[in-house]
Fold this sequence. Notes:
Elements: H1 3-27, H2 31-44, H3 49-61, H4 65-78, H5 82-94, H6 98-111, H7 116-128, H8 132-145, H9 150-162, H10 166-179, H11 184-196, H12 200-213, H13 220-230, H14 234-242, E1 271-275, H15 280-286, H16 291-295, E2 300-304, H17 310-316, E3 322-324, E4 337-340, H18 344-347, H19 366-376, E5 382-387, H20 397-400, E6 416-420, E7 440-441, H21 449-456, E8 461-465, H22 468-475, E9 480-483, E10 505-508, H23 516-533
Helix pairs in contact: 1-2, 2-3, 3-4, 3-5, 4-5, 5-6, 6-7, 7-8, 7-9, 8-9, 9-10, 9-11, 10-11, 11-12, 12-13, 13-14, 15-22, 17-21, 19-21
Amino acid sequence: MNALDRKVKTKLDKVKTKLDKAIKSYKAGNYIEAEALFKECVKKEPANAEAWYYLGLIAYTSKNYEIAVEHFNAAIKINVEEKYFLDLGLALYQLKKYNALEECYLRLLSINPDSSTYNCNLGVTYSEQNQLEKAIDCYKKALVINPKNADTYSNMGFALKRQNKIFEAIECYFKAIELNPKHATAHYNLGIAYKDTMQIKESIKCYRKVLDLNPQYPNVYLDLAIALFLDRDFKAGWEAYEKRITVQKINEIMSPLLKPKWNGESLEGKNIYVLHEQGFGDIIQFSRFLPYLKKLGASRVFFKSRPEMINLFEQSDLLGVEIIDADFDEKTLEFDYYIPLLSLAYYLNVNEYNIPSTDKYLHASKRKINKYQKKFFNNEQYKIGIFWQGSTTNSGDAQRSLALKYFYPLFGYDNVAVYSMQKGLGSEQLDKLPDEYKVVNLGNEFNDFSDTAAAIENLDLVISVDSSVAHLAGALGKEVWIILSERPEWRWGQEKDLTIWYKNARLFRPVLGEGKHEMISRVFKALNKKLANSHLLNL
């Protein structure tokens, strides 16, 4: 060995010694010291794959996933090892970089094609990209290799459910639980499947099992609450729903108020601040409870609403409730307690027999009502407002929303004027409306919910999917027909065509497996009967 070789060997020996020390520090949890040592290693030996790999692990532990990906890729360029790809996959999954993740697992399968885990993980990657057939094929391959993998059965069940093959999904969940009775995710997804097939009591059992296995399981309290509401067990339902504040940390999305949350204490002489939460429909539905805080003795009740609803609530005169502007600095507000809006029902002990204000509790501006009447409603026809597209931020929107074409039969009535309540998303479908179909597009006139309310007051009937417009019509006491999805929300119950929340609402509930055309035909049969009774039917 010549002098140059000895020098290189000495340098590499020093790097190896430092690497060993760095690995020891990493395993001891001394990440700061370990990171400094690994950086010294790659500085002296840039082709040291292990040092790059451990730097990736440290970045991943610190949730610096982008940096972790860079370091894992640096290691892979030097040396192709399974563990490098495995941890790269974990980082890519956190970043939701599914194309790169797919490539990662394909590389792993080229190294080890008989890995059940790699096939299963590739299936998860396809599932996240909504490539469900590919995902299921991967799960099937994984099960051929290892037919006793509960995770694979659970994942396949999830993909099948998304294909609406719900009973096949249930069989997969059964198998996963048979293989691993403590598989919380399988129990949870089975609970959702039972809820979607309206096997509510079985759904509740599943969610309670999940809580036995893991009290911190994400979303389970919310889903349990929904199932309990559907089962009309309001007391237990509100109690479970209240857990969203502690388990799901709703306070993280609310301003730190440095004041106690109201937990049902006496409000005599106290000021209470109510914060909005959830969607527009939820806010409308639960705003009925705000005046009851005054009845409990509160000196002042402040309600911070979403900007689009402020005018509506101000003109509704909610018995002394003070509406706070959305950008108001709450730090300047003097109050004793705060509470999220949807918690009011729990502390007011609301059940199906004592729900207040089921007929009319919100009001439109008389000035705006007259303005809309003169501009759009000055005719003798039967006036029907329609709303077909909900917000896509709702996870169930694909099931609840309809295409405008389902309302085309409305244009066959001579004595009916059709008004579109649609604003924004969904209104583009009006551009494709056949020329012979005449509709008054009110959506372009709406600046906020006070405008929508004024328009609704001029209508004879509102026909809507489950949406904020349906809630608003109900809260205004207007007759509203609400078209539900196969998996209706908890508030609509299980069976009846009436609802405990709105006196003038009628529910159109699809039969499981019934297509949308069949369901809509029932709506128009009911409309034919209504118009005939009013001597307005002239097809």
